[in-house]
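Before the break, one more example. Copy the sequence into your notebook; we will annotate it together after we see the structure.
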Amino acid sequence: MSDLSQLQKKQNQTFMLALVNFVLFMVLFTGLGYLAWQSARLVNQLQADLDRAEQTIADLQDRFQNMDTGQIVDRLVASATEQLGESIRTVVQASALTDPIERASEKLAATGNLLADTGQAIEEIHETIKGVDSEEIARLVSYHLLKGLGDGFQEAAESRKPDFLNAPQASARRPAD
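Here is what the structure looks like once it is written out:
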């Protein structure tokens, strides 16, 4: 009988071991199923994000290609005109007390000439802008504005002169002593 009870005990232990293994396999397969489901969900979300990113890039490319260079030039000219006006006000205020009226009128006449030159420069800028990047545009606008001011600004104009304008005129001009 004792053999029978030991055999019964071993069968119960084997049954319990098999039951525990079955439960562990169920937990394992349930975890693997959950992991596969989460992976598929993540892939779908990443695909949606990628599609949105591609659409955004395409929109940005369209906006960049449709940029109006005329508007950019107008903004640059407006900014330069504002800075020029401030410079003129400063010159007139500084010279009103110390310079005679005649010298102030000469500076105002020079400013009128500068504005006429600026109008011509704007036309040249608009033609040149099609193949020039923003740094070159800024340098070209500042060159034409500084070039017309005179009175010590000639050197500043030459330092801001775009590279493509330097070559043919560099040997023809010499700075004033």
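The radius of gyration is 40 Å. Residues 170-177 have pLDDT under 50 and may be disordered. Try to locate both features in your own notes.
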